[in-house]
Design goal:
Layout (H helix, E strand, L loop, with lengths): L5 H7 L1 H11 L3 H12 L15 H10 L13 H9 L10 E3 L1 H4 L3 H7 L2 H6 L4 E4 L7 E4 L3 H10 L1 H5 L5 H17 L2 H15 L14 H15 L3 E8 L2 E9 L2 E10 L4 H18 L6 E9 L4 E7 L2 E4 L13 E5 H9 L9
Parallel strand pairs: 6-7
Antiparallel strand pairs: 1-3, 2-3, 4-5, 5-6, 7-8, 8-9, 9-10
Helix pairs in contact: 11-12, 12-13
Length: about 350
Amino acid sequence: MFGLTLEEIINNFKPYINDAEESLQISSGDFLAKLKSYYDGYAFSKNDSVTVCNPIAILEFFYHKKFDNYWCKTGDDDFVKHYMKNAKLTIVDLEHYAVTVGQIEMPGEVTQSLAPALYLYQAGYLTPRKEVNGYDGYYLTYPNLEVRSSMINQTEYDFFIAAQWEEKSRTIYRNLMNCMKNEDYVGLLAIFNTFFSEMLHNDYDIASKDSSHLECFYRNDIYRLLKYANLDIWLEEHKLFGRVNSVLYHGGKQIFLELNVSKTGTKGSLQESYREVKAHMDGCIHSYKNPFPIGIVVSGPLHRIALASVNTDVFECPPDADGREVASFKRIGDIDGFLASIREAPGDGNGR
């Protein structure tokens, strides 16, 4: 009635799985990991370890042999965008929206005034998860990557087509495509910073958001920008041995975009955040044929990238005298030398 478990798909769709793996040229382990992350995740009981895949999306996937947002294309989602705007919800809010069991079980006509995100849960865009910190509570979140990426894509119009954005977006787009053409990935980081500075002035202002959600905000904005440029970008791509924040397929490379946010923005916090980024990339890099890692550390207080690595080199983007303007990136060494230089110096706190 509610969907297909991954086990049911494995047991009953073997010919289709084999065809899809051959068409996509992907290993069995990576295929199942990606299928699960893209279409699984819907929970219909308090035991959220039992989840199901969207049956419409699964059948469409096996027909087309392509990972795409099939379920979200079956209806007009304008009402969701307008509802979120009226309820003052953002795509970042919906990454982790705290609710109680009582609220989840309430009738639909009651929930909107108590917890607006419950309406999106009942419409199929969110699903409940149990908190893992020992607290007997629940939260709503996107069930999978199909829904998450669709929700992000819905906001493209607001960011790029609005009158006040038209000229700016054209300029950013031209600069972005020039950087990709010339493989200027340091220049790409500067474009990200320009984009972040513009985003701070729209309706999705992050100033009042919980700092634990900031990574989602910046990750989603990078995805939105690259998707707007019609580039092949994937959020949280799952591989058998782990996952990376974003993977950009371009020029025969698999470009990692691994991001972390330093809460304080101090030197030690930035360094600690970068160590986490590097460790995460190292755990995934061997799953790709031609990986090109880009590590990104955003300074929470400055709302921009302050420290980054491009392939084997490390760059910093120091603030101007007033600590506000987006300055140019400058190389400060290679990754091994950079990590060695900070190994003996204690950090000043966890970067997250």
